[in-house]
Amino acid sequence: MRSTPINIEKSIKKNRAINKGIKFLLTLITTLAFSIILFLLLKIISKGLFTINLHFLTGLPEEIDAGGGVGPFLFNTFYILLISLAISIPIGLGAGIYLAEYAKKNRLTEWISTCVEALASVPSIIFGLFGYVLFVEVFDIGLTVIGAAITLAFLNLPVLTRIIEESIRNVPLSYREASYSLGASKATCIITIILPAALKGIFTGISLAACRALGESAVILLAGGTSASDKMWDFSLTGPGATLPVQLWYIQSEALVDDAKKIADQSAAVLVIIILLLSLILRLPFMFKKNQ
Predict the structure, then answer these.
(1) Which residue in 102, 120, 182, 225 has a CA-CA distance of 20 to 30 Å to 239?
(2) Measured between alpha carbons, how far is 251 from 34 in angstroms, rounded to an integer?
(3) Is-contact 68 60, C-beta < 8 A?
(4) Cα torsion at 30, 32, 249, 55 (round to 10°)?
(5) What whole-number percentage of the chain has pLDDT above 90?
(6) Which long-range contacts (C-beta less than 8 Å, at least 24 apart) are formed by 180-189?
(7) What per-residue confidence (pLDDT) applies to 255?
(8) What is the mean pLDDT of residues 33-45?
(9) Is the pLDDT confidence value at 5 over 80?
């Protein structure tokens, strides 16, 4: 029996009502989640932001007296991050390109992709224990900046590889066909066409890895230790490698200074602001490009 026009109209109205209801529900959930995150961020920032000064950012920490700074820990945070990204980005980029463009689809590549996904979900403390065994027990170099940076690179590598691989795979096939039709080689096509087209996804992966690394504490605690240099600008790779998140944990749990709570609030505010600024800086070029 054929549906009458009246039944079709009722069905259309019903579907529209369902769509509006689902859209409203999803909008409500998104707004609620965003509001909670925004409230937490503003709460953390407001508790410590207005008491931060230059001495706090560049001064040396105090063990007993109040008024110490976090200069060496803040420096180590950026220093270890840059070293880890310098290691993980080229390797992750090469692995992502190989898996997306060169690797044949067989059981071996499927197994490799599965391993990469599994490693991306491994808890960071496992990587920290691996770094401790490798650099402290095997190589016997102790808890150092270079040990923390390499271990952090191991942590970020699976995530970077997976995101870069997916970003390259999402580039339309027509881009490749157009490049090959003009006589370009596969390598030329990848460098001049595919990578620029996948750049936004690649930078998103780098942003996620960098922001995760900035807030990481378990890896640094086990591979870099809980102390930093007694100088503000110490570029030694074998020096102690504690970062701001580790100092935040230490000051909250074991510090003896009278202003430990104040230092913890200030450190948390600085860390949140750095992560937000880094994420914004990495996305800024694509925001301008979109508006042009």
Answers:
(1) 120
(2) 30
(3) yes
(4) 90
(5) 51
(6) 186/101
(7) 75
(8) 92
(9) no
- The 3-state secondary structure of the chain reads CCCCHHHHHHHHHHHHHHHHHHHHHHHHHHHHHHHHHHHHHHHHHHHHHHHCCHHHHHCCCCCCCCCCCCHHHHHHHHHHHHHHHHHHHHHHHHHHHHHHHHCCCCHHHHHHHHHHHHHHCCCHHHHHHHHHHHHHHHCCCCCCHHHHHHHHHHHHHHHHHHHHHHHHHCCCHHHHHHHHHCCCCHHHHHHHHHHHHCHHHHHHHHHHHHHHHHCCCHHHHHHCCCCCCCCCCCCCCCCCCCCHHHHHHHHHHCCCCCCHHHHHHHHHHHHHHHHHHHHHHHHHHHHHHHHC
- Two structure tokens written together for 262: 């104040």
Say how far apart CA 20 and CA 233 lie, in whole Å.
57
Using alpha carbons only, how large is the chain's radius of gyration in Å? 24
Report whether 268 contacts 248 (CB < 8 A).
Answer: yes
Residue 48 contacts residue 271 (beta carbons within 8 Å):
no
Distances (CA, A) of 72 to 67, 218, 230, 233, 239: 15, 19, 7, 7, 11
pTM beyond 0.85, yes or no? yes
Instruction: Give the pLDDT confidence of 164-221 residue by residue, as tens digits.
Output: 999 999 999 999 989 888 888 889 999 999 999 999 899 988 998 999 899 898 899 9
Contact 132, 142 (CB under 8 A): no
Closest alpha carbon to 247 in 123, 74, 83: 74
